[in-house]
Specification:
Strand content: over 45%
Number of domains: 1
Largest sheet: 9 strands, antiparallel
Shape: globular
Order of helices and strands: EEEEEEEEEEEEEEEEE
Number of strands: 17
CATH class: Mainly Beta
Distance between the termini: 32 Å
Length: about 240
């Protein structure tokens, strides 16, 4: 079992809105086969803009069992279990990234990650519920890329490297459901990330290189969430 990620920073540090592009964070990966060109029959900025025939399923986790060895049990700052076909996670004083021991994928391919959240909420009225996906995670340092939605119906993305570095200000979207069911989709196609909530494009970003090989689920301090499923596919 890999050591879990224990983030000793309050999530309000996500409010740093300055876009930082450090030298080691390479950008603009291009697919070697098409040199960044998008075929005319594909529209990666549209949720259903890529035919199903272009997808190759890599991971389909419906949490019937702990097939992908997600962190379970309890510790000083977390509780986690797989029950009733949901991954149920909870934090105490600090934000936390829950990881799988078995899920990795090739960052240089085109891919799509989709997580269905049953609910996410805060234990306290004055603490915002936050839930999101981290990719390219180096579990030894917590360095990662993150894509976040909040119960305030806002979203943002960025990278963590000895601090939270958002790529833009938080933005509001009516397509995000506060505390309830949400389908969060991260699509990487050629040199762009496409961030969707409930099948609606929120924002497009330049790709960034990974710090590590792991994927995780991030929630805020004093939060709890139930995850229905997680799916990863490569895109031809």
């Amino acid at each position: 079992m890999k050591p879990y990620i224990y983030i000793l920073l309050i999530l309000t540090l996500f409010a740093s809105c300055e876009e930082i592009e450090p030298e080691f964070l390479q950008t603009n990966f291009l697919d070697s086969e098409n040199n960044g060109n998008i075929p005319q029959n594909l529209s990666p900025e549209v949720y259903d803009g890529i035919p199903e025939s272009n997808y190759t399923l890599l991971v389909q986790d419906n949490f019937e069992y702990n097939s992908y060895e997600w962190l379970t049990g309890s510790g000083e700052n977390f509780e986690a279990e797989i029950n009733d076909m949901k991954y149920k996670i909870k934090t105490n004083e600090y934000p936390f990234i829950f990881i799988s021991d078995l899920i990795t994928f090739n960052e240089n391919k085109n891919y799509e990650i989709e997580m269905i959240i049953d609910e996410y909420k805060s234990s306290y009225w004055d603490n915002t519920a936050v839930c999101g996906i981290t990719i390219g995670l180096d579990y030894s340092t917590s360095k990662c890329l993150y894509f976040i939605i909040t119960a305030d119906k806002t979203y943002y993305a960025g990278h963590y490297n000895d601090g939270w570095n958002n790529w833009h200000d938080e933005e509001y979207s009516d397509d995000i459901v506060a505390e309830g069911y949400n389908k969060v989709t991260i699509r990487k196609y050629n040199n762009n990330f496409y961030f969707f909530a409930n099948e609606t494009l929120l924002k497009k970003y330049d790709t960034k290189s990974f710090y590590g090989i792991d994927l995780g689920i991030l929630i805020n301090a004093n939060n709890q969430a139930k995850i229905n499923s997680l799916k990863i596919s490569y895109i031809d």
